[in-house]
Write a structure and sequence with these properties.
Elements lengths: L1 E3 L3 E5 L4 E3 L2 E3 L10 E7 L7 E7 L3 E4 L9 E3 L10 E3 L8 E8 L7 E10 L8 H58 L1
Parallel strand pairs: 2-11
Antiparallel strand pairs: 1-4, 3-9, 5-6, 5-10, 6-7, 8-9, 10-11
GO biological process, one term: monoatomic ion transmembrane transport
Protein name: Sodium channel subunit beta-2
Keywords: Disulfide bond, Glycoprotein, Immunoglobulin domain, Ion channel, Ion transport, Membrane, Signal, Transmembrane, Transmembrane helix, Transport
Length: 187
């Protein structure tokens, strides 16, 4: 038997949250042998408080709880192996570990899933991709300008160097011609 849950859920304070628990089994559920409990723990070290169970006569039954009152309802479908619950008007005190225990004989193993419920007072701001694109474009543009200016500087230096080499060659040729004229004059 496998129990499938989401390991961590964030819920906004004051809203309703669905806490999912599904199980898979090689055997069809027999209502006379099936057993299921939901429990709550403030932290992993605390004792568990049972707040919902399966009754052979009544199906899923919420238990009296000072913590939850009537805020917990069964939201699953036993025919589809769905044992999910909803918790309405989520409070900061509801944060903790929710355990989903399942026994479906003749499966020999008891299934167990645990969900960490985190209660937040405000949702994180949505990620705005426009800002990321603008920053990326700005950085890209700055890099392009930097590269372009480096290329221009390098080209100017190369051009200046070629001019100097050309002037030196012309001066050398001028000296050679002047020396050649001077040599002819001495003859």
């Amino acid at each position: 038997m496998d129990v499938i849950v989401t390991s961590s859920i964030n819920a906004l304070n004051g809203t309703t949250v669905k806490i999912s628990c599904l199980f898979t089994s090689c055997y069809k559920m027999d209502p006379t042998k099936f057993a299921m409990n939901w429990t709550y723990q403030e932290s992993l070290n605390d004792t568990e408080e049972m707040f919902m169970t399966y009754s052979k006569k009544k199906g899923m039954v919420p238990l009296r709880s000072d913590r939850f009152g009537e805020r917990v309802l069964f939201a699953g479908n036993l025919d589809k192996n769905d044992l999910s619950i909803t918790l309405s008007d989520v409070q900061l005190e509801d944060e903790g570990v929710y355990n989903c225990y399942v026994r479906n004989p003749p499966d020999r193993i008891q299934g167990h899933g645990f969900i960490q419920l985190n209660v937040v007072t405000e949702l994180p701001p949505p990620r705005d991709s426009t800002i990321a694109v603008a920053i990326g474009a700005s950085v890209g543009g700055a890099l392009a300008l930097l590269i372009l200016s480096m290329v221009v500087v390098k080209c100017l230096r190369r051009h200046r160097k070629q001019e100097l080499i050309s002037e030196e060659k012309m001066e050398e040729e001028g000296k050679l011609e002047a020396e050649g004229v001077a040599e002819e004059g001495t003859k």
